[in-house]
Amino acid sequence: MFEKLEKVKSRYNEISGLLSDPRLFQGIRMIIKLSKEFSEIRTL
């Protein structure tokens, strides 16, 4: 259980960092994908 939560927390932090990277905004599809995943994780 805690292992799964740690993975989710790690992914949340990874996505958060990626969304703040200006290079990411060159690929709109990736922004949309990561934004959706970020909002899903954040509600946990």
Radius of gyration: 11 Å
Structural class comes to mainly alpha
Please work out how many helical segments DSSP would assign: 2
Q: How big a fraction of the residues is strand?
A: under 5%
| Cα shape | elongated
The major beta sheet can be summarized as:
none
The number of domains is 1
Total strands: 0
Q: What is the helix/strand order?
A: HH
- Percent helix, as a range, is over 70%
Query: How far is the N terminus from the C terminus?
Result: 14 Å
Which helices and strands occur, and which strands form pairs?
Layout: H1 2-19, H2 28-42
Helix pairs in contact: 1-2
Give a summary of the structure in a few sentences.
This protein is an all-alpha fold.
Question: What features would you describe in this structure?
Answer:
The chain starts with a helix and ends with a helix. With 44 residues, it is mostly helical. The protein has helices at 2-19, 28-42.
